[in-house]
């Protein structure tokens, strides 16, 4: 076993499906009769057919983890099934060296009427282990899955979480060379998910992992390569996880700001993020640079003290930071302009948006709240997913 050894090679893999079953069956019969041998025919779409996976290429070495991301229906699971040999591609080739452990669909690979224990033996045998070898691993698998009480119950009576526990325990404890994991991990509870990530960290140096997920924090946590799929096609393939994730998020961005609350005591005229460059439609701020905002509004009531609150959220709408609040006194029907400056912005690389809240400085009651009022991206010259930096001083005492 050598680190860096090529374990998985995917060359020009494509798979087409048909949108309706009747036509699909008809094409199947036609193909059987005519014997589709020419690769040209395989690359042509007939009416109602579409590419679920199109021209995917990548290589994965021992110790590498590939994150496969994309919107619903992008073709990720189909590609995993091709890798696992469950589906034959229409064109292209998959070369795998060594043993494959896969956790693809809930309960897939298990016989529902057999018990958990019997299924462990079945799966082990499929992976090429002898009965004695499985005997030696059995206890570890049952312990890892934490389902000892239910190990002799038919798998069809297992809960979703129990199926995923058993599936991951078998896939990971059988020392696979290539480990394929679909979103299913999300079904496990937090304790089990954390345990799975710990296991992936432990086995990763000896394994090539392909990991499908919609959770970008999970992808950025474990992957060192990424493929973004869109309608079956690779939209980004590379080692800059941050760039792949940004491209994924930018597909879902909507520039419509969202007025959540408005009591008509002031109107927002404009909210501008002042930057020198714009990439892919987003204002760009260099990591450690200055964030400048230019906000214009008109106050409609007099003798009110307003408090301005600006919150920065990430693309999953989690609040990440809040700017220091500030107060101002209103004058009836008066336009006001406020310039905001935040220096040394050390947010991680990625896309962010602002929520703006104007509240009464006296009662704290909200007057106006607008979500997703402006988006920006933080970039960094390094290709790593830089975490949030906290300034610290170190006192070395000898
Ligand atoms: N057996 C099949 N017959 C016909 N179409 C199929 C079949 N399996 C998948 N598809 C279609 O292929 C496309 C890709 O599906 P796939 O399950 O690979 O997407 P995905 O990226 O895994 O999506 P999700 O994030 O929702 O799991 C979808 O349009 C789906 O409807």
UniProtKB/TrEMBL annotation:
SUPFAM superfamilies: P-loop containing nucleoside triphosphate hydrolases. Pfam families: ABC_tran. Keywords: ATP-binding, Nucleotide-binding, Transport. It comes from the Bacteria. CDD domains: ABC_KpsT_Wzt (cd03220). GO terms for cellular component: membrane. One of its GO terms (molecular function) is ABC-type transporter activity. SMART domains: AAA. Residues 8-256 form the ABC transporter domain. Belongs to the ABC transporter superfamily. PANTHER family: TEICHOIC ACIDS EXPORT ATP-BINDING PROTEIN TAGH. This is ABC transporter ATP-binding protein. The lineage of its organism: Bacteria, Pseudomonadati, Bacteroidota, Flavobacteriia, Flavobacteriales.
